[in-house]
């Protein structure tokens, strides 16, 4: 019997069709995840209605200027190549506003337009700084969410309000299930509290208010989820919890990111030779999702909710560790291999170091391999007539480690059955267009792309500088060997003296 083969191009793209003609409102569109959501809409869904982006003035730039800067980012180059330069201006409408101020900073006319035209909302605006002052974090993350929900309740044609949260906001739950959890405090009372209290008073009370929660980010995102759950009987709302969002895997630019948060910062710090030791359980693992996969998940879930009318599932963990567990030790080893292949410019020490299970050993290594070299290098920089920088760099690293160590030395797991069930309903074409799995990922190749992209887009180190960087790192290798020999000789000599 003859068998017929199906061309996947002949299969429908039901996900893409869902957004045809619909007007979409996005907050947080200038952030890392937000940029890739906007890019995905513009590149893959040319028949959507209009994209409305909420943008606030910042650094003396008005929203229109900030949008020009945004769309000049290389991440939008493929859109311009495919659709033409004018396509973005035709499809994107800038709405001046700010989720941290009362009324969202919207004009009466803009509010009316949004209420009449919007059918889908993706609310992603938030401060992602872990050390953000509590008052600002509450006003932006929590009160901002409350005001967005109030706006959504006024929208006449609303089909979906998708709140982008984080998988790391209920840290007391060692296994995070796909369900709402009680907020750590009454979000309405916390909002009122910080509204009338002075900044210094809120800051003085922060530790007491947070309790066992380690930072203001997790606290305020958990409060925000409580508000969204409260609104679910009144509007079609869902909660999306991506884990640690990392650079692009495949499209539009492999390895691209726009920040040094999370693993990218560690890669750069280790690659430059300024991070030599970390207090971390090397056998532990975190949960990572490449930003392009996270964006696919966001849009596939939106399709499932709107087109399939699947309103039973209201919480989705966009996570990976139930399928892929990559230990800290594996990440370091893969990163080190690729740092030798694609070194950074101006390396001050050969990339190396290790993770320490003992805080005492870690602190000793910080003294010998971080602080003493930093003071010596700064002394040389000062004598050369320049402004010292290394001690300042290491103070920033130490501050970042305060956050990192908490997450690196605790362990969480995440259920993601809801997204797995949705993934199982995709046809073969949709599985390619909206990939949600990492079955074909080559970790070494991915890390190499991340380092190359960090060199180019974060550090502004051009590809033609690679040969000189490789020569420099070979020199630093022998410097590192000699330093280790001197260190062990010192330890032996000190032991004899004792």
TrEMBL record:
Localization (cell): Membrane
Membrane topology category: Multi-pass membrane protein
GO biological process entries: long-chain fatty-acyl-CoA metabolic process
A Gene Ontology molecular function term of the record: alcohol-forming very long-chain fatty acyl-CoA reductase activity
InterPro entries: FAR, FAR_C, FAR_NAD-bd, NAD(P)-bd_dom_sf
Pfam family, any one: Sterile
Residue intervals of the Fatty acyl-CoA reductase C-terminal domain: 369-461
Domain Thioester reductase (TE): 26-298
Signal peptide: none
Entry keywords, A to Z: Lipid biosynthesis, Lipid metabolism, Membrane, NADP, Oxidoreductase, Transmembrane, Transmembrane helix
Main location: membrane
Superkingdom field: Eukaryota
EC number: 1.2.1.84
Catalytic activity of the protein: a long-chain fatty acyl-CoA + 2 NADPH + 2 H(+) = a long-chain primary fatty alcohol + 2 NADP(+) + CoA
Gene Ontology terms: cellular component: membrane; peroxisome
Membrane spanning residue stretches: 360-385, 475-496
Function: Catalyzes the reduction of fatty acyl-CoA to fatty alcohols.
UniProt record similarity statement: Belongs to the fatty acyl-CoA reductase family.
Protein name: Fatty acyl-CoA reductase
Organism: Trichogramma brassicae
Phylogenetic placement of the source organism: Eukaryota, Metazoa, Ecdysozoa, Arthropoda, Hexapoda
């Amino acid at each position: 019997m003859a068998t017929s083969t199906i061309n996947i191009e002949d299969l429908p793209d039901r996900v893409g069709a869902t957004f045809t003609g619909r007007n979409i409102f996005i907050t947080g569109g200038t952030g890392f995840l937000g940029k890739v959501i906007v890019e995905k809409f513009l590149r893959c869904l040319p028949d959507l209605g209009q994209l409305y982006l909420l943008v606030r003035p910042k650094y003396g730039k008005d929203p229109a200027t900030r949008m020009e800067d945004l769309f000049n980012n290389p991440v939008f180059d493929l859109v311009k190549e495919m659709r033409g330069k004018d396509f973005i201006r035709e499809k994107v409408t800038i709405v001046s506003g700010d989720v941290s101020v009362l009324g969202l900073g919207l004009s009466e006319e803009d509010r009316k337009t949004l209420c009449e035209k919007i059918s889908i909302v993706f609310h992603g605006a938030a401060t992602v700084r872990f050390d953000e002052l509590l008052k600002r974090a509450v006003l932006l993350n929590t009160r901002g969410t409350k005001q967005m929900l109030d706006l959504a309740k006024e929208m006449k044609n609303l089909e979906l309000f998708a709140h982008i949260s984080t998988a790391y906001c209920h840290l007391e739950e060692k296994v995070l299930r796909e369900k709402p959890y009680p907020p750590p405090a009454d979000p309405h009372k916390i909002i009122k509290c910080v509204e009338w209290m002075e900044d210094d008073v809120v800051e003085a009370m922060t530790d007491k208010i947070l309790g066992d929660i380690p930072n203001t980010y997790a606290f305020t995102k958990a409060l925000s989820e409580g508000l969204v759950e409260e609104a679910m009987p009144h509007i079609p709302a869902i909660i999306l919890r991506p884990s640690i969002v990392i650079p692009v895997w495949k499209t539009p630019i492999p390895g691209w990111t726009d920040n040094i948060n999370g693993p990218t910062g560690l890669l750069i710090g280790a690659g430059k030779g300024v991070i030599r030791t970390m207090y971390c359980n090397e056998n532990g693992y975190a949960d990572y999702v490449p930003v392009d996969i996270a964006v696919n998940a966001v849009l596939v879930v939106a399709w499932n909710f709107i087109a399939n009318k699947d309103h039973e599932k209201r919480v989705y963990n966009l996570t990976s560790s139930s399928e892929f567990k990559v230990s800290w030790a594996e990440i370091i080893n893969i990163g080190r291999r690729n740092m030798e292949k694609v070194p950074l410019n101006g390396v001050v020490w050969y990339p190396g170091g290790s993770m320490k299970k003992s805080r005492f050993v870690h602190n000793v290594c910080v003294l010998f391999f971080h602080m003493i070299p930093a003071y010596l290098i700064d002394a040389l920089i000062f004598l050369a007539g320049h402004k010292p920088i290394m001690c300042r760099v290491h103070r920033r690293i130490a501050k970042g480690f305060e956050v990192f160590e908490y997450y690196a030395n605790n362990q969480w797991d995440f259920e993601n059955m809801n997204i797995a069930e949705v993934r199982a309903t995709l046809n073969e074409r949709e599985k390619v267009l909206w990939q949600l799995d990492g079955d074909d990922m080559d970790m070494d190749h991915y890390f190499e792309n991340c380092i190359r992209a960090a060199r180019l887009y974060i550090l502004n180190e051009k590809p033609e500088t690679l040969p000189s960087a490789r020569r420099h790192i070979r020199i630093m290798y022998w410097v590192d060997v000699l330093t280790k020999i001197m260190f062990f000789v010192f330890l032996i000599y000190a032991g004899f003296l004792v």
